[in-house]
Amino acid sequence: MNIVSKLMIVGFAIVAFSCDNDTAKETTSSKTNATAALAVTPKKFLFDATKAETAGNADWVLDADTNPQRFPTPAQSTITATTPETFWKGGLSSWGIALAKLGHTVETLPSGTAITYGGTGAQDLKNYDVFVIDEPNTRFTAAEKVAILTFVNNGGGLFMIADHTASDRNNDGWDSPAIWNDLMATNTVQTNPFGIKFTLDNFSQTTTNRLSATTNTILNGSQGIVTQLKYSAGASMTINTTANASAKGLIWKSTSTQGTSNIMCATATYGLGRVVAIGDSSPADDGTGATGDTLFPGWTELASHSKLHMNASLWLAKL
Fold this sequence. Notes:
This protein is of the alpha/beta class.
């Protein structure tokens, strides 16, 4: 018989069929089931490990190993629909595994590597769609600030995650809210380019005070509906729509009006690119990492946490 293989694209999934004359039969092998989860348009996500993300009790990397390496091990090409997050040993492994299951590529920018844009290096930001920086504990250099802002301006996605004030894990006098504010306030490109500023505060709460717009794909995206966000000690944000008219709050403190302050998750566009900001590293924490670190399962603590981070990742990647 003359058997012709065909592919049918359904939403974000690719489903394989075998057709013999007028009869179509869906392939049910485990290989096809894994393929069905793959994204139609794979994107490249880079997770930063250059800013002391593993200092102290933190483990904000995909795969800690001895030192976070460019490619998490075992190879992500062997990930299937049933691969557990413990496949990699990092506090953000659940996030990385979830992206890989959708067919995207995840990498780490190792410690000692400069953040660059427009250069010739294999890990120059121009080679990626989204840059994730979870709780940086050392300041960005002047050149790195330019690289990050140029990356976003030219179409890249930036995921900015901070923590509460006085969370200086490497004792260098700088913690993540101040470091993010320094990037946005002290650079040679543009002051307050995203219209977002972290408040130097420290609070814990669970909120359901979210933007009601059903068309917002971060709160109502392909990975599920976000109904809650829990801070286990984090910093809020304010937005300045004069500095950036696109700056928007998505989630606020539980008793706050939905205005320009007391924001727990915010977004903005800048040039051709996009930005998402969250003021606590706990919601992305999957509870596992390097031996000796005390971590907490924020990723699974509330079902909304994984949905929020995944929907935001896909929005940043323009999917």
